């Protein structure tokens, strides 16, 4: 583990090297073996990440959960002492951007890593699940034109994503943030000759840029207020004149560090950063790019648009919770946006007929849960749900990929049925994924979602009801899909009648090897590992049990300075009242296991599944009739509440119209004014021309020179 | 006339200015093939030279203001002198010029060689190179003006003879526009020089800062005249209307030089003359306010117009208006941070703009059009061109790890944390965030118009006008683009050594804090705010 900490730069570097090798030599030399550099690079990064995780877990101080108060007191104490964070390491790679005066506020964006439990968890998700997906992709993308290009982009993506979670300052975070955005752009537009892919790629990047605009402003304001952009400076808890402090630490006591005239910026910072988080993590109203991004190959949807990149916003707010917690308005905004997005996207998912679109809206909805968790002062639950979601959503997307392979690119769930006979293994894997997503008792999603719902219930009844309703919708739409596709009478589409659906290009290649084994080992093996995660990942943070097994993720995360300071900030803000649940920051566990929320959550999930069973398996006709009777609402959901049209009509078109008006102004008014000004010498020139037979150009030049001469005479006279 | 004195330290400066002019004289006497090779060698020599100068520019002591050549020629009482001087800023802009020039000469299309008088093309290119270098290393205001105007001559000739269909109109408009602008500039410089009794820039700066010599009314007029000249060149709204026509009708090689290097003469002039003379700076000043407003308009207006343009060269022209608006704003933010950002922005913008214009030229050569509605799906037959187009687009819109990011990000950071900007508009603070936010919309607009262009020509089903030959880039094309790509990445990954080499120089250029008409009381420099803590 010490090796990993000392050589943390290798984690982003190795996938980058893999990408460079694949990019340079893939087309001519490696060809069908282009996945090897990426496998090696990402695999090595995954090994390093897991080593780091295990190493940090082994090194954590084993404060047993029994003494909750004791742990909290110790955490509070830890903030004062330099040695309070044995699991946190700052490592400096090189000076990247250093600018500004030596005295005072120097803009110092060093390339370096901040390693703590949060980083380790994120890295393991990114590299671990990332590696599984690259393995799957080698089978899935086989024979695809531009095979090397695909893997080069994947390597580049892992590079950017690891920079994002490893970075020790906001500019590194921004680097990763923009980097994953570009990779997402390139991968969504992978089938570049398809107009729909082109539009989706462009939309993904531009909508993300709207978020990045906010993020960048947030960084500018952090530097403006704190004079640094480093999370923890030379290290959390260090005191003394020789040490640079980071802004997260300063945020605990801003009046001591922020110049008085700049305190106003603190609240603006949060809303700016929030815009960035909402853009990247596809929250209302910036979620519009994510469903369209399903134009990319399915492994991309699994990796980037479900498991890793889209969780970056949640990571950002968890990392910076110390800044967010003291500002009530910001927290309420996050809670409202998260809850609304969860419900809104969940309701759109009800009426989507494309497998991947259903899961895309589901992802948007689940990300809403994570934001709610952060907002109700429970970042541990957010990270918990992030981890379990990464497992089961990657599983679901990749399973859809297998379905797509078997059906020749068909993804419309109305056109298939009873696929369990054709795809027996995928049937089981998909079932596990669906159960986990629906929150079926004892599976991964059940524990993590329940933690969020019960945390929300402690804050607001409305929030709680919204979350529960969304859980119901989630279970329903998930099993509508499952029952329609895998159960019931067998109907396997053969892709001949693709009628220009969104996946023509994939269809072409899928069709080519249509008669081969639909479930090759290279694709099923990674799915099996993900399925194990979807079944059992809840273990990492069970709400009961003895010793370290209970709340172990929370306990681990509590030793991240971000969570410790976040907790301290919450304590400061709410004076340790009822509002702050220490367990939310992993600082203590609840004294007693509350069974009620667990039971309610389980019942809701079962209810949703039962409804789906009744309407989509037992009696599909009835389901169809019900859909007809609810047609107006259904239509609104199917058309995604016309949000895309609203954006187009209310923002894009008017801006373009402005562009056209400006162009006309430019041509007739601005340039016209210039022509008017030029008219005066033109007349003079005309006069001169009559008098001296000179051409225009010389006329102007002469006129100007004479003017200059007159002025010079006047000056020197 | 005093004897010519050239101290050993300044010899490289004289050489680097003289070599291109001498080379031009020889080139005019050679055969076409020889002239091309000769021009290439000369331009490459200046590159090597300038790199050596840049590496050592940081060494000279600040009192010397970089490398400084002594008086060599004085005329009458006003003390015009051939004085060359070079600090880190000049040095790196010279490197940009001399890096791009060999590539420009190398990339000149075979069509030019086949036409009449092709050797003159190369000769004039070298004259242009010499006068551009001269601008950046001039230590005397009149000498600067001389080179500044001299750049117009080769431009006019190259455009008028080797330009596109509308070349005469474009050349005329370009000449009149920029010449008119620089006449205003000359008036300001001459007035100031007369007051100072010298045209040595460093001494003029001292005089200009002295309220006893220059009244506040005169100050405003001088500022306006200088700013007018430089903003035409940059250009900033509403002085930009020469640009789109010129860029679309000049020969590709000249467009690259104009967009990448000549536009920097404007920003360089603002940095070298307007800023240190204290015409703008802390406290309310109408000139500053006007410039801020114009820059903000440029950012939004240029970006939106670029979005609805169809000609790639025009898209790039308006994108320059948008980008350089931020750069000028960063100059007037006047802190070490923002100025370092502004200089990086100039270098980065030069690199990415040059590469994109080269690429546009290459696509034009193959398809016969620059209209983005006439071509699509080029990635299929031209994957390397497509990859590079995406890569340089990303550099242009400021992706981290490219030079564009460093320049744009630091400029915007400098604008937001600048007291100058914050206290603009009648001294009431708090406009910093608003101004910075409007300037930052370039982040979104840049993505919109650039990706729109890339999506139209690169993605989608393949389409090209009849007669198009969709061959991918050849070795020669790659030889032109590869050095720029390397420079973009180097400046993006390791910008700190370069920024350090002109850190001291930019901090000397910062607008003086003590000013005659600072009515809002003592201003705290933004760099000092945190010192107190």
Summarize the structure.
The complex is a heterodimer of chains A (717) and B (533). Chain A has 717 residues and is an all-alpha fold.
Protein described:
The complex is a heterodimer of chains A (717) and B (533). Chain A is an all-alpha fold. Chain A has helices at 2-6, 10-30, 35-59, 68-80, 117-140, 147-166, 170-188, 195-226, 247-250, 254-257, 265-280, 289-292, 298-307, 312-319, 321-324, 328-349, 355-375, 379-407, 424-438, 444-457, 461-486, 504-512, 521-536, 552-558, 561-574, 595-618, 620-629, 631-638, 643-692, 696-716, and strands at 89-99, 107-115. Helices cover 69% and strands 3% of the residues of chain A. Chain A has a two-stranded antiparallel ribbon with strand order 1-2. Chain A is globular, with a radius of gyration of 29 Å. Residues 63-72, 76-83, 496-504 and 510-515 of chain A have low confidence and may be disordered. Chain B has a two-stranded antiparallel sheet with strand order 1-2. The longest helix of chain B is centred in the middle third of the chain and has 32 residues, at 336-367. Classes of the chains: A mainly alpha (717), B mainly alpha (533). At the A-B interface, β1, α7, α8, α29 and α30 of A face α8, α13, α15, α16 and α17 of B.
């Amino acid at each position: 583990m010490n090796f990993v900490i000392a050589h943390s730069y290798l984690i982003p570097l190795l996938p980058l090297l893999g990408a460079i090798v694949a990019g340079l030599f893939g087309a001519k030399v490696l060809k069908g073996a282009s996945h090897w550099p990426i496998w090696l690079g990402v695999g090595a990064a995954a090994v390093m990440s897991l080593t780091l995780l295990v190493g940090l877990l082994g090194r954590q101080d084993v404060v047993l959960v029994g003494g909750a108060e004791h742990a909290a007191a110790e955490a509070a104490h830890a903030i004062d002492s330099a040695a309070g964070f044995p699991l946190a390491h700052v490592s400096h790679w090189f000076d990247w951007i250093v600018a500004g005066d030596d005295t005072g506020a120097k803009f110092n964006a060093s390339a370096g890593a901040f390693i703590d439990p949060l980083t380790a968890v994120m890295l393991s998700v990114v590299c671990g699940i990332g590696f599984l997906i690259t393995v799957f992709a080698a089978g899935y993308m086989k024979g695809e034109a531009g095979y090397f290009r695909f893997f080069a982009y994947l390597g580049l993506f892992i590079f950017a994503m690891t920079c994002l979670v490893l970075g020790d300052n906001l500019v590194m975070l921004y680097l990763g943030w923009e980097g994953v955005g570009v990779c997402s752009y390139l991968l969504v537009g992978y089938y570049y000759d398809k107009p729909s892919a082109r539009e989706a790629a462009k939309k993904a990047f531009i909508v993300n840029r709207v978020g990045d605009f906010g993020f960048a402003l947030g960084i500018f304001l952090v530097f403006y207020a704190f004079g640094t952009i480093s999370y923890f400076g030379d290290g959390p808890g260090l005191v003394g004149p020789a040490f640079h402090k980071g802004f997260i630490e300063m945020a605990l006591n801003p009046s001591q560090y922020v110049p008085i005239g700049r305190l106003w910026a603190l609240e603006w910072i949060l809303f700016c950063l929030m815009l960035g988080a909402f853009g990247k993590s596809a929250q209302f109203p910036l979620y519009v790019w994510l469903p369209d991004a399903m134009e990319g190959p399915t492994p991309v949807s699994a990796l980037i648009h479900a498991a890793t990149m889209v969780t970056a916003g949640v990571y950002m707010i968890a990392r910076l919770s110390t800044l967010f917690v003291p500002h009530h308005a910001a927290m309420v905004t996050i809670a409202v946006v998260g809850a609304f997005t969860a419900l809104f996207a969940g309701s759109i998912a009800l009426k989507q007929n494309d497998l991947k679109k259903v899961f895309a809206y589901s992802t948007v909805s689940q990300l809403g849960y994570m934001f709610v968790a952060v907002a109700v002062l429970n970042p541990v639950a957010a990270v918990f749900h992030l981890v379990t979601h990464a497992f089961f959503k990657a599983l679901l997307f990749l399973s859809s990929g297998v379905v797509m392979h078997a059906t020749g690119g068909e993804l419309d769930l109305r056109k298939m049925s009873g696929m369990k006979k054709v795809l027996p293994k995928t049937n089981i894997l998909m079932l596990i994924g669906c159960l986990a997503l629906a929150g079926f008792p004892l599976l991964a999603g059940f524990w993590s979602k329940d933690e969020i719902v019960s945390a929300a219930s402690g804050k607001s009844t409305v929030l709680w009801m919204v979350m529960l309703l969304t859980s119901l919708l989630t279970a329903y739409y998930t099993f509508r899909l499952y029952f329609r596709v895998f159960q019931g009478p067998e109907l396997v589409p053969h892709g001949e009648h693709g009628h220009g659906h969104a996946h023509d290009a994939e269809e072409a290649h899928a069709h080519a090897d249509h008669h081969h084994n639909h479930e090759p080992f290279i694709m099923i093996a990674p799915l099996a590992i993900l399925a194990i995660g979807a079944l059992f990942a809840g273990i990492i943070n069970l709400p009961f049990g003895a010793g370290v097994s209970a709340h172990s993720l929370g306990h681990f995360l509590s030793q991240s300075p971000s969570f410790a300071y976040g907790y301290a900030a919450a304590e400061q803000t709410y004076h340790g009242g009822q509002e702050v649940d220490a367990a939310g920051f992993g600082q203590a566990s609840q004294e007693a296991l509350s069974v009620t929320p667990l039971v309610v959550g389980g019942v809701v999930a079962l209810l949703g599944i039962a409804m789906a069973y009744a309407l989509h398996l037992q009696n599909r006709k009835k389901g169809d009739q019900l859909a007809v009777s609810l047609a107006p609402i259904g239509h609104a959901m199917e058309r995604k509440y016309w949000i895309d049209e609203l954006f187009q009509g209310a923002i894009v078109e008017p801006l373009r119209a402005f562009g056209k008006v400006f162009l006309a102004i430019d041509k007739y008014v601005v340039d016209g004014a210039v022509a008017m000004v030029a008219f005066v010498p033109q007349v003079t020139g005309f006069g001169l021309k009559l008098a001296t037979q000179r051409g225009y150009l010389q006329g102007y030049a002469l006129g100007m020179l004479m003017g200059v001469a007159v002025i010079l005479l006047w000056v020197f006279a | 006339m005093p004897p010519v004195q050239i101290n050993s330290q300044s010899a490289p400066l004289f050489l680097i200015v003289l070599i291109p002019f001498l080379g031009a004289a020889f080139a005019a006497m050679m055969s076409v093939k020889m002239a091309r090779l000769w021009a290439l060698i000369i331009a490459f020599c200046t590159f090597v030279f300038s790199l050596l100068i840049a590496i050592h520019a940081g060494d000279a002591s600040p009192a010397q203001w970089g490398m400084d050549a002594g008086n060599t020629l004085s005329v009458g009482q006003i003390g015009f002198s051939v004085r060359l001087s070079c600090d880190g800023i000049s040095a790196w802009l010279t490197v940009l010029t001399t890096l791009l020039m060999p590539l420009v000469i190398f990339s000149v299309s075979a069509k030019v060689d086949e036409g009449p008088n092709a050797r003159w093309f190369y000769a004039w290119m070298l004259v242009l190179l010499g006068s551009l270098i001269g601008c950046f290393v001039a230590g005397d205001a009149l000498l600067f003006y001389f080179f500044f105007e001299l750049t117009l001559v080769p431009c006019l000739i190259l455009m008028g003879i080797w330009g596109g269909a509308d070349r005469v109109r474009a050349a005329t408009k370009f000449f009149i526009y920029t010449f008119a602008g620089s006449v205003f500039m000359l008036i300001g410089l001459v007035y100031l020089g007369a007051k100072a009794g010298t045209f040595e820039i460093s001494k003029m700066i001292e005089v200009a800062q002295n309220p006893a010599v220059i009244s506040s009314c005169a100050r405003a007029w001088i500022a306006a005249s200088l700013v007018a000249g430089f903003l035409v060149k940059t250009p900033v709204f509403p002085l930009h209307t020469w640009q789109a026509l010129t860029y679309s009708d000049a020969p590709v090689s000249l467009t690259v030089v104009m967009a990448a290097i000549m536009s920097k003469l404007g920003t360089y002039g603002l940095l070298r003359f307007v800023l240190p003379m204290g015409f703008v700076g802390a406290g309310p000043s109408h000139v500053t306010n006007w410039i801020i407003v114009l820059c903000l308009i440029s950012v939004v207006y240029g970006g939106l117009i670029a979005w609805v343009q169809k000609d790639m060269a025009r898209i790039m022209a308006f994108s320059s208006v948008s980008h350089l608006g931020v750069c000028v704003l960063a100059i007037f933010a006047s802190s070490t941070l923002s100025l370092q950002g502004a200089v990086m922005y100039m270098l980065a913008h030069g690199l990415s703009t040059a590469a994109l214009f080269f690429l546009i030229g290459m696509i034009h050569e193959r398809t016969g059009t620059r209209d983005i509605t006439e071509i699509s799906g080029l990635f299929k037959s031209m994957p390397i061109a497509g990859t590079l187009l995406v890569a340089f687009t990303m550099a242009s819109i400021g992706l981290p790890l490219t030079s564009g990011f460093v320049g744009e990000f630091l400029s915007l950071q400098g604008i937001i944390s600048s007291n100058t900007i914050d206290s603009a508009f009648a001294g009431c603070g708090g406009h910093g965030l608003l101004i910075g936010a409007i300037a930052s919309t370039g982040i979104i607009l840049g993505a919109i118009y650039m990706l729109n262009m890339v999506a139209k020509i690169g993605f989608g089903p393949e389409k090209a006008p009849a007669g198009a030959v969709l061959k991918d880039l050849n070795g020669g094309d790659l030889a032109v683009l590869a050095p720029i790509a390397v420079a973009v990445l180097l400046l993006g990954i390791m910008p700190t050594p370069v920024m350090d080499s002109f850190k001291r120089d930019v901090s000397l250029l910062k607008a003086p804090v003590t000013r005659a008409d600072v009515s809002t009381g003592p201003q705290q420099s933004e760099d000092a705010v945190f010192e107190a803590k």
